[in-house]
Amino acid sequence: MRDALKAAEIAMQKEMERQVDMIYSAMAIAFHRYWGWGPLRIRRLMDKTQDAWDECGETNEVSMLQMLEDETGIEIRNHELGKSWHDLAYLNAKIDMGRMNRAQWIYMRQRQKDWIGPQVIACVLLALYRKYGFGHQRCLRILGQIEEIEAEFGYDPKKLKAACFEEARVELKGR
What we know:
The chain is an all-alpha fold. It has helices at residues 4-35, 39-57, 64-72, 102-112, 116-132, 136-152, 157-168.
C-alpha cells in the first residue's frame, strides 16, 4: 500500500512543476510579445522570482500569497474554489490548527495542491513589484496576458515551454 502522505507530496511536486512550466512560459511569451522584453530581462525577472520564493521558504509564518498582499495590497484568490487564502490555515499562519494528526496532514497536502498556481502567480507579481515597480494596473494587465496565452496553448505545459523557447528565446531549465 502506498503511503498517502508521500503520494500527496509527490502530487504537489508534480503540480508545482506543471504550474511553473505553464506560468513562466506564458509570462515569458507575454513579456516578449506585448512588452518587447528580451531573453535577458525575462531571465532576470525569473531570478527575482526565485529570490522571493526562497525568502518565503525561510519561514512557515507567511505564505507567498500573504507576502504579495502585505507588500502590494493585491490579493490573489482561487476562483475555482471560491476561497481566499485568509480562510485557510495552511496559507494563513494566524489560524492556529493546533497539533495535526496524520489524516489532517494528508488532507492539508491534498488541498494545498489547488493553491500552487495562485502561489506561483503571486510570486511572479511580487517579483514584478519589487524589481520593476509594477502596481495594480500593470499586474492585472500581465496577469490577463498570462491567462490568455495559457488558454491559447490549451494549458499544455509542453506546448507552452516549446513556444516560450521559440518565441521568447527563453528555455526553462530543470524538466
